[in-house]
Design a protein that fits this description.
By secondary structure, the protein is mostly helical. The protein has one domain. It has helices at residues 5-33, 44-54, 84-88, 92-109, 113-142, 145-182, 191-227; strands at residues 61-65, 72-74, 79-83. A three-stranded mixed beta sheet has the order 1-3-2. The radius of gyration is 20 Å and the shape is elongated.
């Protein structure tokens, strides 16, 4: 794909080093602020419940789930699921992550445009993730460039899903900060530390989007080179 060694190394960095760095940043930041309690000393579950109730989302439930940093919002069942450490934890990290997941619940309740668009993309993105490489590699091996092109089109849906995820996640974090302050969970002097947790988590989505775009560009260039 790349004519020079320098270009190839940049591609490898995008594909491997950046995601690994992002994951490392998340883990180190979470580890640091999971040891720092908030002034309110509320658990993640209590924070989530308070913010949900403050926004009139009494029907959204909160559940404890297994795993490390496995926290998520399930829009189908209207449930905020928090990993055990964050469900029971009194830390800034627990409060930030709980508020972030509730941010998704608020987005869902308000029919946030990017969230709705991401939901509509999911079937195609899931299909693209599963089929694109099979079509591209199979088409290349058999010399069927139309098959390769079909794989690239499917991959583009998966990449678009990654890109649409960015504003969804950034918006949820922005909502989380506002809710944490307005609800009194954190004080003004705790905002900086809480933002560090949310910003570190956002890096994983940025890294994933960069890798997805780099992969798509690589296959598009390969397609046009082969056509020549």
């Amino acid at each position: 794909m790349f004519a020079s060694l320098g270009g190839y190394l940049i591609y490898i960095a995008l594909l491997m080093i950046i995601p690994l760095w992002a994951q490392s940043k998340v883990k180190s930041t979470y580890k640091k602020y999971s040891k720092v309690a908030t002034s309110s000393y509320m658990t993640g579950a209590q924070v989530a419940r308070k913010i949900l109730d403050d926004n009139g989302l009494f029907d959204v439930q909160i559940e404890e789930t297994k795993g490390k940093l496995s926290d998520h919002y399930d829009p189908r069942k209207k449930v905020v699921r928090l990993s055990s450490d964050n469900f029971h934890g009194h830390s800034m990290a627990a409060s930030a992550i709980a508020a972030h997941e509730v941010g998704h619940a608020i987005q869902d309740a308000e029919a946030y445009a990017f969230l709705r668009f991401r939901h509509s993309l999911f079937p195609l993105a899931n299909l693209g993730s599963n089929l694109s490489f099979i079509l591209i590699i199979g088409g290349a091996l058999m010399g069927l460039m139309n098959l390769v092109l079909a794989g690239i089109v499917f991959m583009s849906f998966a990449v678009l899903f990654q890109l649409v995820t960015l504003p969804v996640e950034f918006n949820a974090s922005s909502r989380a900060m506002g809710q944490l302050v307005s609800s009194g969970v954190i004080r003004n002097n705790e905002e900086r530390q809480t933002k560090k947790v949310l910003n570190a988590a956002a890096l994983t989505y940025v890294a994933a989007a960069m890798v997805a775009v780099a992969e798509l560009i690589r296959f598009v260039l390969m397609f046009f080179v082969s056509e020549d």
